[in-house]
Amino acid sequence: MLAFIWAEDSHGLIGQNGTLPWHLPDDMHYFKKTTMGNTIISGSRTFRSYNKPLPGRENIVISSQSDFPAGVHVVPSIDRLCELVAENPTKEYIVTGGANLFSQLLTRVDRLYRTKIEGTFVGDTYMPPIDYSQFALVKSIPGIVDEKNKYPHTFEVYERRQFHS
Ligand SMILES: NC(=O)c1ccc[n+]([C@@H]2O[C@H](COP(=O)([O-])OP(=O)(O)OC[C@H]3O[C@@H](n4cnc5c(N)ncnc54)[C@H](OP(=O)(O)O)[C@@H]3O)[C@@H](O)[C@H]2O)c1
């Protein structure tokens, strides 16, 4: 199954000049906890923002290029990625972005890990619109606000609704 994980501001902003528009360690901790031990899938631009494969996780990068460090599994197309996911139906593949990759997988995603950050930031990359009527909110947990985590934020989990005819 496919999941997305991302953080967005009040206007759906997710990126600024190849990196994140905010500094929010509580969300980085949540990202690590949620993805650890799992397989993560990143667009090449998002992967380059990590600098290296993220430890403790299987790192898949979607790219037409092949110049990635050892430890990265490069998948050259969305079709090949979808085959891989279909071959392992019980495994959770977590897509870590960015917007380009999310938009190509919107119709296929089963679970959403969304961090909603209250605020308006400056940036250039937005989450593609999601039809939330297709999803049920199953978890909503407020994050820590303190001197290191200045912006109120909520960790939400959505599951795709199963419609029966
Ligand atoms: N707030 C968050 O939670 C969050 C999460 C993730 C990312 N971000 C931010 O979002 C921004 C990056 O997002 P982005 O949309 O610009 O880029 P992206 O989705 O990370 O990467 C796009 C690149 O991936 C490769 N790719 C995508 N689809 C492909 C396909 N079907 N076949 C082959 N290759 C494919 C292409 O690169 P090649 O040229 O290598 O083929 C493409 O240029 C950054 O600012 C990042 O920090 C934010």
TrEMBL record:
<dbReference type="GO" id="GO:0046655">
    <property type="term" value="P:folic acid metabolic process"/>
</dbReference>
<keyword id="KW-0521">NADP</keyword>
<dbReference type="InterPro" id="IPR012259">
    <property type="entry name" value="DHFR"/>
</dbReference>
<dbReference type="InterPro" id="IPR001796">
    <property type="entry name" value="DHFR_dom"/>
</dbReference>
<dbReference type="GO" id="GO:0050661">
    <property type="term" value="F:NADP binding"/>
</dbReference>
<dbReference type="GO" id="GO:0005829">
    <property type="term" value="C:cytosol"/>
</dbReference>
<comment type="function">
    <text>Key enzyme in folate metabolism. Catalyzes an essential reaction for de novo glycine and purine synthesis, and for DNA precursor synthesis.</text>
</comment>
<dbReference type="GO" id="GO:0046654">
    <property type="term" value="P:tetrahydrofolate biosynthetic process"/>
</dbReference>
<protein>
    <recommendedName>
        <fullName>Dihydrofolate reductase</fullName>
        <ecNumber>1.5.1.3</ecNumber>
    </recommendedName>
</protein>
<comment type="pathway">
    <text>Cofactor biosynthesis; tetrahydrofolate biosynthesis; 5,6,7,8-tetrahydrofolate from 7,8-dihydrofolate: step 1/1.</text>
</comment>
<comment type="similarity">
    <text>Belongs to the dihydrofolate reductase family.</text>
</comment>
<feature type="domain" description="DHFR">
    <location>
        <begin position="1"/>
        <end position="160"/>
    </location>
</feature>
<dbReference type="InterPro" id="IPR017925">
    <property type="entry name" value="DHFR_CS"/>
</dbReference>
<dbReference type="GO" id="GO:0004146">
    <property type="term" value="F:dihydrofolate reductase activity"/>
</dbReference>
<dbReference type="GO" id="GO:0046452">
    <property type="term" value="P:dihydrofolate metabolic process"/>
</dbReference>
<keyword id="KW-0560">Oxidoreductase</keyword>
<dbReference type="Pfam" id="PF00186">
    <property type="entry name" value="DHFR_1"/>
</dbReference>
<dbReference type="GO" id="GO:0006730">
    <property type="term" value="P:one-carbon metabolic process"/>
</dbReference>
<keyword id="KW-0554">One-carbon metabolism</keyword>
<dbReference type="InterPro" id="IPR024072">
    <property type="entry name" value="DHFR-like_dom_sf"/>
</dbReference>
